[in-house]
Amino acid sequence: MTKMANNPMQSAHAALRCAAKSKRSGMQCKAPAIKGKRVCRMHGGKSPGAPCGELHGRYVHGRQTREAKAARKEVRDLIRTVRQLAALF
Prior knowledge:
The protein contains 3 helices and no strands. With about 90 residues, it is mainly alpha-helical.
């Protein structure tokens, strides 16, 4: 009984199964699904995407960062507001 409790694969055995199905046979993939997802690592469950900012290999400057885009949008909105106010006078 203690052998079962110390088994590191016990959580994998108890995990939900992947919901992906084969086009040809229609059978379900039987690999354990990633925690919080419905599919396994082979069917797209473990792909967080490219790293953001300086961690990305092609990062050159900060022009396209979320913060820079938000700042430019804020400036555009201010300019639009000023132009609308100037048109009233």
